[in-house]
Fold this sequence. Notes:
The chain is an alpha+beta fold. It contains 47 helices and 34 strands. The strands form nine sheets. Strands 3, 4, 5, 6, 7, 8, 9, 10, 11, 12, 13 and 14 form a twelve-stranded mixed β-sheet that branches. Strands 20-15-26-25 form a four-stranded antiparallel β-sheet, with no helix packed on it. Strand 29 (about 805) and strand 30 form a beta hairpin. Helix 27 packs across helix 30, helix 29 (about 1020-1035) runs parallel beside helix 31 (about 1075-1095) and helix 39 runs parallel beside helix 43 (about 1335-1350). The longest helix has 27 residues, at about 1385-1415. The N terminus and C terminus are likely disordered.
Amino acid sequence: MAERRAFAQKISRTVAAEVRKQISGQYSGSPQLLKNLNIVGNISHHTTVPLTEAVDPVDLEDYLITHPLTVDSGPLRDLIEFPPDDIEVVYSPRDCRTLVSAVPEESEMDPHVRDCIRSYTEDWAIVIRKYHKLGTGFNPNTLDKQKERQKGLPKQVFESDEAPDGNNYQDDQDDLKRRSVSIDDTPRGSWACSIFDLKNSLPDALLPNLLDRTPNEEIDRQNDDQRKSNRHKELFALHPSPDEEEPIERLSVPDVPKEHFGQRLLVKCLSLKFEIEIEPIFASLALYDVKEKKKISENFYFDLNSEQMKGLLRPHVPPAAITTLARSAIFSITYPSQDVFLVIKLEKVLQQGDIGECAEPYMIFKEADATKNKEKLEKLKSQADQFCQRLGKYRMPFAWTAIHLMNIVSSAGSLERDSTEVEISTGERKGSWSERRNSSIVGRRSLERTTSGDDACNLTSFRPATLTVTNFFKQEGDRLSDEDLYKFLADMRRPSSVLRRLRPITAQLKIDISPAPENPHYCLTPELLQVKLYPDSRVRPTREILEFPARDVYVPNTTYRNLLYIYPQSLNFANRQGSARNITVKVQFMYGEDPSNAMPVIFGKSSCSEFSKEAYTAVVYHNRSPDFHEEIKVKLPATLTDHHHLLFTFYHVSCQQKQNTPLETPVGYTWIPMLQNGRLKTGQFCLPVSLEKPPQAYSVLSPEVPLPGMKWVDNHKGVFNVEVVAVSSIHTQDPYLDKFFALVNALDEHMFPVRIGDMRIMENNLENELKSSISALNTSQLEPVVRFLHLLLDKLILLVVRPPVIAGQIVNLGQASFEAMASIINRLHKNLEGNHDQHGRNSLLASYIYYVFRLPNTYPNSSSPGPGGLGGSVHYATMARSAVRPASLNLNRSRSLSNSNPDISGTPTSPDDEVRSIIGSKGLDRSNSWVNTGGPKAAPWGSNPSPSAESTQAMDRSCNRMSSHTETSSFLQTLTGRLPTKKGKEDELEKLSLLLFHEELALQWVVCSGSVRESALQQAWFFFELMVKSMVHHLYFNDKLDAPRKSRFPERFMDDIAALVSTIASDIVSRFQKDTEMVERLNTSLAFFLNDLLSVMDRGFVFSLIKSCYKQVSSKLYSLPNPSVLVSLRLDFLRIICSHEHYVTLNLPCSLLTPPASPSPSVSSATSQSSGFSTNVQDQKIANMFELSVPFRQQHYLAGLVLTELAVILDPDAEGLFGLHKKVINMVHNLLSSHDSDPRYSDPQIKARVAMLYLPLIGIIMETVPQLYDFTETHNQRGRPICIAPDDYESESGSMISQTVAMAIAGTSVPQLTRPGSFLLTSTSGRQHTTFSAESSRSLLICLLWVLKNADETVLQKWFTDLSVLQLNRLLDLLYLCVSCFEYKGKKVFERMNSLTFKKSKDMRAKLEEAILGSIGARQEMVRRSRGQLGTYTIASPSERSPSGSAFGSQENLRWRKDMTHWRQNTEKLDKQTGYVD
């Protein structure tokens, strides 16, 4: 104890007991008082657990068994035990947006595809704590909810608000006398002047029973009943909640994983009209980001041609599918910016002549001149008809334009009408009908870049706008690439745009742009699946357009998507011999080499069939080296083989009809195999082109391979540039992820060798490759890791609990998988900072745990839980701790354990020995563990163990710590598949070798070290929540949710948990000053973990874990110069634990305070032996209920901790803890407020039991009376004396409660003693106190009133009877203070308080600015104090205060000294010093 600091020694640990001991000499004539003091004094004497340390908790499970409640049912019964439906495991079908689930059509799929489909379709596995919303984290007494609940209260009218002002009262009375009034208006008192009025007035109604004799008790009872009638049941509903941020104990339910959408924009294409109508025109829309130089959406194709124009193409176009007739589309933009353009491209039917020639008629002919140019138009129509008949399936580029999207959004948002029409002209020339307007407000906006900020990029709230695009630019045959387009778009925003000087094609395109509705009807996904709310399939649909985000989007896959986009870019046939000028490329997706093997998987464009087997690029007339701008969209098969490939066939199209000349002539061939070493082949390609048809078996080879006997264009050089992009939730497109999944799937199929890249992996080196692939996951790109996060974590979790057997050896992958998980979640935490909640929990990981994770299905021979059957066979080793360990695996055990920790010696030992040695090196306290049996430790393998029973038992446990068995089954089957339903579960469990993930996770966490341990600590919440959900699933599927808690989990698992909690508590204590942010997260994570464990584990065991945390914190506090940070962490820790929905039940509210069965000395026996005045056990129990005695703190464990924290922090001698007053008071206020509104405790009898848990609060608040804010102050005069010396007592008796009256009220005779001071005791006369703020004082007082209102009146009366005169006086003055605090003082007082509050907030802001800017230092602060200004502490004697009572008027020039603890004046009066803190 020598090293304890002064503050720790000065803390009043048994304050009330000391008080009684000090007064006992004065009250020697009162046997009743001496009896009470002696009992409490003896309790204090015989128990050596101060308030600063936690007591040993009662074994809650044993207590409930040995103290059964006599009540069979009812509210009291519900208080003693958790409800049977407390925890539920719910399998909730995931919400599907589409009418038909997005799954592949193929029946046979490889294991990886099957895993992905299962991951996207299986039900959510949710663990629900049914009563969780009744915890303090969801306290309904918030400001908004209080206003709702107070609406039904009757309106009160107060006399103080109705009374006139004092200044005007006399004038009003004189005026009243001068006024002539009628008889009806005359006050009754004036009727006496008129006998006539008196005789003719009606008598008052008689008061019944006025003169009856009624006993005083009956009057008291009637008054009591009337007081209780129509009273609001909930006290805290009438009291404003404290000003608090988001409660630290609130854990929000994570969002359901769902498909990502950016801000959604609805674009409706209304009409497209040219000056002349001679042929069909085909249009497409897409979004481009100029800054990122990226196309950010797929193409939307729409057809606005008239039926007459469509008829020209009837020979070439099959009947149109309804899905290709869409004229409206929904675009998604994740990263809206000022650089986004909506680009519209137009195509027409191929005809003879270049683009300029074909566009010329559209530029020179006007609609107004149609009559004059009739013959020319007829000729043009005839030519167009011929071209449509002959070349109808070929297209040529025609024109384009662009809309600066943010200009439209910002201009539409600034207009006042609900719908606007905006005309956009990209050139100086306008169309002939450009003057026509359909709206009175027309905003003409150029395409220059706007200067508006981020608000202009909001696409969710602008007003719908109708755009009329009047000018198009003709396409230039040599500038069709995307690079050219980006240059054009960048140029459009310049005032002197080159494009403005070009001659435009005049047209009129009308489109509507508006924010997309949340649930649009008749909508199709990019895969053409119907989104829900699709009443009629014959209605023209709206297409959802797939986004290609400008930057990475970190959202896990939740739906099946498998699309391929092909972008032919350029072709160079300049060196090709022969005629090849009008070139088109036919693109086909082939599953074999025969021409009939083309698959109908290419999406149609507009007014055509839904899918086709081929797609053609547009033709640039007479160009041997054309550029292309096509986008060809393909629906990829779920399972690809080596024969799947893209085939490109190049044709020369004969535009002029000649005899014996075919329409199209093949001029080249090339291809791209879809798979390369098992991976999807995507990216940029520069391919050579063959002049001849490819030979047989070409599809498995790349065209770069020089095949013998083949002729190539330009000597086999790359002449065709094409880009292939996949948007897939099947193919990861990351080499590290691909390798990991491929190896796991190879284990499933048991097919060796495995070919990955250029490597052939044999079974004998599979182990090293698997480990290296797991460690290499940290190297993979974050975006694909997040997209496949759910499947990846499932696989890693499986490898922790289910390591495979390869070549007869157990491959222990637990450590590698645990390390990979820790690394992945840390990467997510560091890179996705915007996705964290207030506790630092990443929302993606929280959603995975809450919805996706489930206990792995571990029975190897069970049928597949997912769609389809799982084949293959492989050997496994289970890490489950089964009761019987196969002898055949003894030899392999040492090898399998050697990888778990490099620090462990090579001698083969049990995992328990591993844990024991590591914990021993870290100094963990596992005194309660079975490992410490007192006998010899388990002997190494091969040696003879000690014959003692203890060591034999330890040896048996060690042997069974890790068991292995070999099975034949599918590896993938053991993945976290759909768990068996309750039906038939009994049959399955007989065969089920249950795998306990939580046990393996705890073991891996305990034995890990170094960087792995640090990574796990950084994100401890993830592993804690994973462990808890695994525990609940284990209990649920083994029907143990109703089992006794002591038998739910094995002792060795509880040892691991104890070791884990102990080491983490040690980390918090040792690192809280260095890694503040991390320690705060770790502290809350540990608290939430223990809170969760209270719902599933032995609650007495969890209490012991809480005590071990308290023990480590307490031991550290003694050596700290400033303990407030660590105490604040402990308050957060305690508040989270006490937010448990069954907090009251955990405190045993129905138990009587009997001496606990523990190794500590028996309180009752000590009391009975030493008490010389009373042996009444009932008196002792009553006293214990109102004191923070050891029995109280043991049996009401959590409530004892809360009240102990309150008592210690509010103690005036507790140095450095003043800043925590508000925090600890808010914790108590929040608890009581939650109890008050809890529907489970609405019954008065139940509420009395709950209030019993807080009876010591009365004594604690009584001790703080000198520190409470003085609410009795009126006109700056203190109405309540803080301290009265004995000599002044009689003179001050007018403002005090008479002690004679007080003792008479308590029913106790008045002792003939010297009258002591009202509040101040001799032992505390030298203290200086810090006054609490008004808010904190008010919160404390409302808590006191709640306890007094709801506690058992008999118990309260008994305790009041035993109070000393001094304490009874203090209690009555405390109640007087409550009246002053909560009485209604009138509207004017409230208005003055509001103005003061506003002024205070301004002062606080000024102080905060000064603190941030550093304008006030220690020297300036001292100068301010010396001048009598507001300082940190102003110490003044009440007798020397200015008449106004101001705390700031003292002119005592005092230098603040930290070592000055008392300041005395040379006066005989026992004045109390009070320090005021602003």
